[in-house]
Amino acid sequence: MATCLSLTYLPQFPNSVSHSFPFSSSSIRCLSSTKIHTVRNPKARTFHSLIRHRSSLRNTHHRKSFTLRSAVDDVSVIDPPPPPPPSSPPNPELVASLKLKLFSAVSGLNRGLAASEDDVRKAEAAAKEVEEVGGRVDLSTDLDQLQGRWKLIYSSAFSGKTLGGSRPGPPTGRLLPITLGQVFQRIDIVSKDFDNIVELELGTPWPLPQIEVTATLAHKFELIGLATIKISFEKTTVKTTGNLSQLPPLELPRLPDGLRPPSDTRSGEFEVTYIDSDTRITRGDRGELRVFVIS
């Protein structure tokens, strides 16, 4: 009678194969008294076929993993946009170039008195470029920038051919023998004095020489907000210069409150739209563009 051996006599497969296929031995050997014969399982796989199958499964898994990784690698990932850079100071070379362009646009215009409509447009465009590059003006943290004596080199209001600009003022030309000289603003941030100083030449009958005078319109100023200046008129003083400089200054009488016009044209507001150590651009409350340089 044949006696079958226990599973101890099964061929020893690698652990990985045994765990996956515990009953897939290539054969089961039985021992009889005369011979050992083998009973083959038709569904069983040989050891080498198991190894090949296992290798095939591993390669298939590797190909799938490679394909998956490749698909992931091909996916485009859009990074979030970087945060905006902190505000940086304007490029000095660019500012200098644009200022030169502005000075060229207003030169030869006699502070605006000789400006045509095309000249006014060119000056306006050049001033806007400087303002945009310079950024927002904040005088609340650095009022010292206003300090000093500033020379007017252009006023868009003078193109209206009146010395008052966009406000009422004496006309230029042949109606009155008045020639406009230099115009200055003298600002003292300690005393809050804000003086408009105008040099004039008054025509006289021949053979008398022209009379040269300097009119000083004294104001007090205050800062409103970041860059808006409000000025309040106080008095006008006229001082002769040249051959008559020895004469004392004359303070013009101030009109009584009841005789003043509804709107005091000698007071108002304007905004400083650009300022540095030698140049200042302002916009008046009536749209007047003014360009100053330190003197």
UniProtKB/TrEMBL annotation:
Where does it sit, as one GO cellular component term?
A: plastid
Q: What is its main location?
A: plastid
Domain Plastid lipid-associated protein/fibrillin conserved, residue spans:
97-292
Listed Pfam families: PAP_fibrillin (PF04755)
Task: Give the transmembrane region(s).
Answer: none
Keyword Plastid listed? The answer is yes
PANTHER family recorded: PLASTID-LIPID-ASSOCIATED PROTEIN 4, CHLOROPLASTIC-RELATED
Q: So what family is this one in?
A: Belongs to the PAP/fibrillin family.
- Name of the featured protein: Plastid-lipid-associated protein 6, chloroplastic
Q: Which organism is it from?
A: Ziziphus jujuba
